[in-house]
Amino acid sequence: MKVLFVCLGNICRSPMLDGWVRAQIAADPSLSWLQVDSAGFERTHVGEAPDPRAIRIAGEHGIDLSDLRARQIGDVDFDRFDLLLFADASTLSAGLRKAGPRHHARMHRVMEWLDLVPFDLADPWYGDFDDFRTCWARVEQAGPLLLERLRAARQADAVPAA
Ligand code: 4NP
Fold first, then answer.
1. Is residue 11, in this structure, part of any structural domain at all?
2. Has 7 been annotated as catalytic?
3. Element containing residue 9 per DSSP (H, E)
């Protein structure tokens, strides 16, 4: 199963989600069926490592994000991934505008898909390090639920739906 996390710059929120799940996959061979990646809408940071504050907060929790590189979401991603999880309402609506209607059922706001309030994963980029702490805490809140939900979908042999 292939899951894509999407935010705006692909240097803060989606790399945190991507890196958290990658670390679980690396530590647990029973997750070898799962592949994750991340992308953003902005071109500004393409090729860059995650924001140093994202690298720092993940590193404080034992997860190395420094090998990730930002890339821009492309049309091919809507075909390539079974599930596309967006950081917030504005990136989801940008995704829905970009993707053909046949892809829409596989596209969700990540926190909403997990019933975690608030449904938007707030953008920490304009904020300070505390905003990155808050964002990381929400990634750690979402992560186990996400794995549970994906495992259930796999056992049901279903593409995860809303
Ligand atoms: P992200 O945060 O979408 O979580 O990666 C942002 C990073 C950069 C910009 C916006 C949001 N930017 O405008 O450059």
1. yes
2. yes
3. none
